[in-house]
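We include this case.
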Amino acid sequence: MTARQAVSILKKSASTLPAKCTLVLHCLVKPGASKIREGISAITDEAVEMNVAAPAQDGKANKAVLQILARALLVSKSDLQIVQGMKAREKTIMLPGSALCLDATRVVAGDEEARLVEVVRNRLQSYRAD
C-alpha cells in the first residue's frame, strides 16, 4: 500500500493537460493557534500542516483553511473545495487544475503533471509561516 501524498493529481481523462485534472491536497489542520502562528507550518510527504487562529466550531476553521490556501496558491477561495474532513483535523481539499495560472511554467506535455505538483509545492513552501 502506498502512503498518501500531500499534493497529488487526480486524473479525470487521458489528457495530460493540467486543465483536465484535479489537484488533491491532504492537510493536517491545528485550529485555535495564535494569530502570529497562523499559516502553513510544514509541508511533509504526507500532508500540508497548517495552523489557523479560528476555533473549530461552526465552520470557522474550515473557512480559515480555504482562505490561507487560496492566498498561497493564488486562486479564488471558491475554487477550493473540502471533500473530506469537514469536522476533522485531517482534510482532503480539491482544486481544479484549470484554476492555477501556469503561463510562466509551460513545459513539455509529458512533464506537465509533475510540474504542476512541483509548482503547487513551491507556492505552498514560499507561503510557509516561519
Observations:
- Strands lie at 7-11, 21-31, 39-43, 48-52, 81-84, 90-96.
- The radius of gyration is 14 Å.
- Residues 112-126 form the longest helix (15 residues).
